Amino acid sequence: MDDIQNSLKAEISNHGMNPPEYIEPGKINRFSDNGGRNKNGWCTLFVNPDGSAGAAFGNWKDFEKKWFYNPNGKALTGKQQQDLTKQIAQAREKAELEQKAKQAQAAKKADEIWNNAKPADPRHDYLVKKQIRPHGIKQSGKVLIIPVYGDQQQIISVQEIFQNGTKKFLPGGKIKGGSFIMGDIHRDDTFYIGEGFATMATIRKSTDKPCIVAFNSGNLKRVAQTFKDKYPEKKIIIAADNDLETEKKTGSNPGRIAGEEAARAIGAQLFICPVNSDFNDLQQAHGIDTVRKALKIKKKQFQLKRLSEIEFKPPEWLINSLFEKDTLNMVFGDPGAAKSFYAIDLAACIATGKDFHGMEVKPGPVVYIAGEGQNGIKRRFMAWGIRHNYNTDEAPIFISLMPAGLCDPDQAQWVINAIKQVSEDCGKPVLIVFDTVARNFGPGDENSTQDMSGFISGADLIREQSRACLLLVHHTGHGDKSRGRGAMALKGALDAEFRLEKDDLGTVRVTNTKMKDFKPPAPMAFKIRTVELGITDEDGEEVTSAILDDTEYQPLPTTQGKNGRGKWQNIAIEVLQNLYETYRQRLISKEYDPDQARVKINDWRIACSEKGMSRQAWARVKETLPQTQEVKFEGDYVYCLK
Predict the structure, then answer these.
(1) Angle value at C-alpha 433, between 430 and 435, nearest 5 degrees
(2) Contact between 386 and 531 (Cβ < 8 Å)
(3) What is the mean predicted confidence (pLDDT) over 28-45?
């Protein structure tokens, strides 16, 4: 048996591989094919009772060789070779079936890990050290999670990166052919392929081109071939590692060799990192401009064109005379002014192709990024479908499961990544709604010009990548009800803006307050109608929602009575607004429609009393405020009209 072992190990060594100390017969033995920590090498050995033996060995990438042994030194007979070859094939088939079962199990586990993880914190130690952005990866505890996607863009495994930089793949998960994409390949004619996440994040940072992570040198050629087959018309550039330290120790440079093989296989341009070992190391040692220089990136030059050379394009209306494609738009109004109902009306018309109150629409998929409960949004779309006789479940409407903080460019990129998945299934969305600005603002102050500029940049990034019509739903200012809340930079960035007001009779008026390049459209008016959804709640009560129905537009009547308010009137209005907001949030937490919030007159009186208001002051407030048309009473309830 020692002779068989020694002879087989010598044969394996002759092919530049490092065999294990002992090769167990009848099993697939795995080992490194280059002296490193990988398990790309394999060998299976079978020994017959007469002392003859057969084996097959190779690596999982592209090499396999058969070997036969006879103790008397003579060649094996054809029958002996045939029997051993059959045993080897059966062992390989069994091993491959076992491996596929393990990979399927690992893929399921990887999907669970990914779905339970949270978006990666840009301040994670590894990201800060590497000077890179998260690019849509996630985080579980302190561990970064990078998904490994298969050919059909399904998760087949994950790579974990710990704070100290240690990397680990999910045991049993398939890596061969797997990749992770940064950026939008569909929108660019050039993209890069390389090994590690940090390497490709650095190249993405230095080139602004889509980048593909192949995860290791052994996978580089396979990934390059996959993407060349999928995008034959695009230019692919291989960004190879340069393992100079490994070469000193072993005489082999796997990063450079893999890069050369991948580039040769698909006819791609090749750039090899000029230092040990990758382009992220180059950035940390010498700066991002050195990376650009190594990749021969030319800075964009400022250019001028004659007016006659610029092509004239007529407007592409999404809704005729209201909203264009590839624009940033906003509707704003007080709480309860039916802003969300208006946005849902728009979205449902576009997704189904129904005209928007007589105006032609260009139908297409819709993305609705909701900051409030998804169940409430679902009910509103159901109500719209019942009222207009459409099955909204069959329409291409996609609802977010969480808000997106557009001040953070990484969160804007998450939205873009999610939109890509929608685009592959149903085509590119033509309308993206953010309801509301406050819920989708992120870490910042709406009143800060700098923070608002960050929000606008995030929205513009999504618009530029999608070429969709973006619609923001926003609240009015605290003091100035004629404009949206926060820094004026937002209004300056808009292509179109509309104000919604609801009067004491329940009429919702929509008026244009900005139209960048076109004639302002005529104002519109609606009534909020209750729609029964055909289901009951746990108490047996009919579940309802509401929709907007057309009504004749008439200008809002001029406010009569006092123009100003006294001390206790101001306090009473503030208390009432706070009560409404409290009740709205309570409904949202239970996933009910927040516009159904109501305040009892007695609750308002008690809350005013707690603010120090006397009985006499309360009586005067209750008598005088309705005269200003700022509140109205209906039975036991009080309604805030402004």
Answers:
(1) 175
(2) yes
(3) 77
**Average pLDDT of the segment spanning 134-154:** 93
**Structural domain total, the chain:** 4
User: Residue 399 carries which side chain, given as an amino acid letter?
Assistant: I
pLDDT of residue 564: 57
Residues 590, 493, single domain; the answer is: no
Phi, psi of 175 (to 5 degrees): -115, -30
User: Structure tokens of 51?
Assistant: 């002392």
Determine what percent of the chain falls in helix, strand and coil, rounding each to the nearest 5: 40, 25, 40
Helix axes 601-610, 615-624, angle to 10 degrees: 130
Q: Which residues of 218-257 are buried (b: 16+ CB within 10 A; e: fewer)?
A: bbbbbbbebbbeeeeeeebbbbbbbbeebbeeeeebbbbb
- The pLDDT mean for the chain works out to 89
Residue 298 has pLDDT above 80, yes or no: no
Between CA 533 and CA 537, with CA 535 as vertex, the angle to 5 degrees is: 120
Contacts of 180 (CB under 8 A, 6+ apart): 137, 146, 147, 148, 149, 197, 212, 213, 215
Q: How confident is the model at residue 37 (pLDDT cuts 50, 70, 90)?
A: low
Decide if 98 is inside a domain.
Answer: no
Supply the pLDDT for residue 59: 78
pLDDT at 590 over 80: no
For residue 92, tell me if it sits in a domain.
Answer: no
Verdict on whether the full-model pTM lies above 0.90: no
Mean pLDDT of 489-507: 91
Cα–Cα–Cα angle for 626, 632, 637, rounded to 5 degrees: 135
Lowest-confidence segment of 250-259, 315-324, 613-622 by average pLDDT: 613-622
Q: How far apart are CA 108 and CA 221, in angstroms?
A: 26
- Within this chain, do residues 112 and 232 fall inside the same structural domain, yes or no? yes
Same-domain pairing of 423 and 528 = yes
Residue 120 pLDDT > 60? yes
Nearest to 210 by CA among 229, 227, 222: 227
Q: Which residues partner with 45 through β-bridges?
A: 55
Q: How far apart are CA 213 and CA 135, in angstroms?
A: 12
Domain that holds residue 625: 567-640
Tell me, yes or no, whether 237 lies in a domain. yes
Which pLDDT score, from 0 to 100, does residue 619 have? 86
For residues 596 and 488, membership in a common domain is answered with: no
The pLDDT tens digits of the residues spanning 342-401 come to 999 999 999 999 999 999 999 999 999 997 667 889 999 999 999 999 999 999 999 998
Q: Is the domain of 586 the same as that of 543?
A: no
Q: What is the mean pLDDT of residues 325-347?
A: 95
Tell me, yes or no, whether 561 lies in a domain. Answer: no
CATH for 198: 3.40.1360.10
Of the candidates 466, 443, 585, 397, which has an alpha carbon nearest to the alpha carbon of residue 119? 443
The token pair at 538 is 């746990």
Question: What single-letter DSSP state applies at residue 295?
Answer: T
Clarify whether residues 132 and 245 are in a common domain.
Answer: yes
**CATH assignment at residue 441:** 3.40.50.300
pLDDT at 429 over 60: yes
Listed in order, strand segments (DSSP E) in 562-634 are: 599-600, 631-634
Beta strands in 125-189 (DSSP E): 138-140, 143-149, 155-161, 167-169, 180-182
Q: How far is CA 552 from CA 144, 320, 473, 507, 522, in A?
A: 56, 20, 24, 9, 12
